[in-house]
Amino acid sequence: MGRLRTRGALSLAAVGLLLGGTGVAPALAVEPMPAPSVPVETPVAPPPNGKVPVEPVDVRKEEYWLDDYGVRDAWKSATGKGVKIAVIDTGVDGSHQDLRGAVGEGTDVSSVGRGNGQEGLGAEPEHGTLVASLAAGRGHGSENPDGPGGTRGIIGVAPEAEILPVSLWVGSEHPGARDIDEQIPDAVRWAVDHGANVINMSLGSNATGWPPAWDSAFAYAEEKGVLVVAAAGNRGSGLNQVGAPATIPGVLSVGGVDRSRTASWDSSSQGISIAVAGPSEEMVGAIPGGGYARWSGTSATVPLVAGTAALIKQKHPDLTAAGIAQRIVDTAHDAGAQGKDPLYGYGILDVRAAVEDDVRISDTNPLGSVRQWIAQNRPPSQTPTPSSSPTPPAPDTRQVTGEATPPVAQAPLNETGALPVVVLVSFGVIVAGLTVAAVLHIRRLSR
């Protein structure tokens, strides 16, 4: 994610929508500044003789969160089978050896990518593949005796979940790309309509507000019980506070911690909307073309939480977004200031506990409700309709239940014929008065 000179509270098109990793690529803006992202130029291990080996290193050993955050233990109860995670990002390479069979139906909402959502777009075309691999990578090679998937390569938190790739164009200019304010709501609606149970948004902005055009799409996801997980952003890219879409009520905003479980300075931010924190430093992931890369940032944390949500959905299929979110926040380990705080939210992610522990599900969503927020904060003129064109007002078809009272007729003023007489008498009185006054005045002058 990156900081832009031009800021705006209502339009992310004005301030730019940015990706949640840290590294070196520029970001889209009216006046862009360097926005670091993913250092894909440097693989996990340098390839010998200038050729990329089949297995650069054993990247599975680099995934410290599988043991440290209870992922392997959670696989005893669920692996994400039957659950769909929509990855709204820069496109996902479904041909990567660790994602084969994991990527299902997709789409492009930018108007410049492939219709299946599997083409890398924008300034960081590898970003979506990195994200997808941590959510639902399946690894490759021989069958893993200790868990699902193959023994080599990247394995995601929910390795049997299905990825629905939705490609966006963000991070650089493109004359044919649609406005981001149109891409985002269309992406969310498409994901909901095509069966996504969880939506992964490893992107954000430096604006806490969001365009009214986004309202109905996020309200639609809430109505259908689809959990949206979004990145809190990174100070290392210039963002010191959480930006949209992670500020939208009902969205599960994710912060980051380092290997010691301390709030990360460069690879996280802060804000009252942060719900949970997870690992965001010393991360690895898959990149297009069969490679791997080190990276950092809350972009990498979001798919771990989205994958956790997929495990919960498989284990507890009757839960909606609110119930899934409650299991995640209620089982998190409190950190920082006691209770919810702007660095760790409700605490640090515990994948096993979120899936297996007994949690009392209340009727109240701990993340709030975007539908209630819209009703309280948007003027009626700003409330968008789901369609792209304005809907004409409906005709007033209310029935009249009261009996109408007819006006009472009034008699005309001249009904008796006395009007002319009254006028003449009045005129005569006025003339007589003026005559008397004139005579008296003349007599005084004569004296």
TrEMBL record:
Gene Ontology biological process terms in this record: proteolysis
Keywords on record: Hydrolase, Membrane, Protease, Serine protease, Transmembrane, Transmembrane helix
Catalytic residues (positions): D89 (charge relay system), H127 (charge relay system), S299 (charge relay system)
Matches recorded under SUPFAM superfamilies: Subtilisin-like
Membrane spanning residue stretches: 418-442
Xref: InterPro entries: Peptidase_S8/S53_dom, Peptidase_S8/S53_dom_sf, Peptidase_S8_Asp-AS, Peptidase_S8_His-AS, Peptidase_S8_subtilisin-like, Peptidase_S8_subtilisin-rel
Family from the record: Belongs to the peptidase S8 family.
Protein name: Type VII secretion-associated serine protease mycosin
Biological classification of the source: Bacteria, Bacillati, Actinomycetota, Actinomycetes, Micrococcales
